[in-house]
Design goal:
The protein is an alpha/beta fold. It is 32% helix and 20% strand. The strands form three sheets. Strands 1, 4, 5, 6, 7, 8 and 9 form a seven-stranded mixed beta sheet that branches. The protein has a four-stranded parallel beta sheet with strand order 11-12-10-13. A hairpin with a 2-residue loop joins strand 2 and strand 3. The radius of gyration is 23 Å and the shape is elongated. The protein starts with a helix and ends in a 7-residue tail after the last strand.
Length: 296
């Protein structure tokens, strides 16, 4: 009698991964919330999905970096069952990962986002080790995880990972990867309620802990957003985060939260006097523009 998916994970896949050097720190189980369907006028949440994420751990003191997904199949399924091209690319984008592995506990197939190639089935005894996957990730991304530019990627979340959601971690990693590749601008587009302020706070905190934050400006377009952002930043930065008001530039703070109005740049004919008088060119090493689509 063949094993079902849960049995295949426990009895075949988990032991095989351990033999290839993957441990509890390297493997993260991410559960997603199921979609909502309306039946007879009542909403009902469906079952979410659970993903195995493989993560690279540079040292025991650094943040593990998700790079791959494993999809477990029941023992009697082919290892690549259900792995369509659209699904491959969709999962890579959803989780910001570069590799997808599918396995039935005996063989596995691999999709490589860098090359767009799906491999032929291979025995699970040949599954890549973390060292092999790190080398391929670094080659594909074009930077070393030990480089200065990649430092924020390796900084752990203050207070641990319990509060972050999988897509927030994916967004933060995407920004840090772009910076490590030499980029200096990034645009994140997320739905309302997805925790954009959480992402901004944790990005800047990890950049600061990496020793790369000189001064940061978080700019928004309403007083209530400034108040909300201030509370979130002070939770991580304490008194090093402060809100700007006319007449008080808060130059002692490391993170400054301001509205366009408080900087004197809310209208096309504003003179930007408060901004240029208090913050010369290159004063800020990092600028985050909240709700930028409303701030043109």
């Amino acid at each position: 009698m063949s094993r079902n998916e849960a049995q295949t994970r426990y009895e075949l896949i988990d032991p095989a991964l351990r033999l290839r050097g993957w441990n509890e720190t390297n493997i993260k189980v991410e559960a997603t919330v199921g979609g909502i369907t309306v039946i007879d006028g009542k909403g009902r949440r469906g079952k979410g999905r659970t993903d195995y994420l493989l993560r690279l751990e540079v040292t025991q003191d650094t943040q593990p970096i998700a790079v791959a997904l494993i999809e477990a199949k029941a023992e009697d399924k082919s290892p690549g069952f259900g792995l369509s091209q659209g699904k491959r690319d969709g999962d890579c984008d959803r989780l910001n990962i570069k590799f997808i592995f599918c396995t039935n506990g005996h063989q596995f197939v691999e999709y490589d986002k860098f090359t767009g190639i799906t491999s032929q089935p291979k025995p699970l005894t040949e599954f890549p080790t973390s060292i092999e996957l790190r080398r391929r990730y670094e080659n594909g991304m074009g930077f070393s995880l030990e480089s200065e530019a990649a430092k924020p990627l390796l900084v752990k979340y203050t207070g641990g990972e319990a509060q972050r959601r999988y897509y927030q971690d994916a967004a933060i990693r995407a920004v840090f990867e772009k910076v490590a590749q030499g980029g200096n601008r990034a645009l994140l587009s997320l739905a309302t309620g997805a925790g954009k302020t959480f992402i901004a706070v944790n990005m800047l905190k990890r950049i600061a802990d990496a020793g790369q934050l000189r001064k940061a400006l978080f700019i928004c377009d309403r007083d209530e957003l400034r108040t909300q952002a201030l509370a979130a930043f002070q939770d991580k930065f304490g008194a090093n985060a402060a809100a700007v008001e006319r007449g008080n530039a808060q130059k002692n703070a490391k993170v400054i939260i301001a509205t366009y109005q408080s900087l004197g740049i809310s209208q096309e004919d504003d003179d930007a006097g408060f901004l240029v008088e208090n913050y010369p060119e290159d004063y800020f090493s990092h600028i985050v523009i909240d709700e930028c689509h409303r701030s043109a």
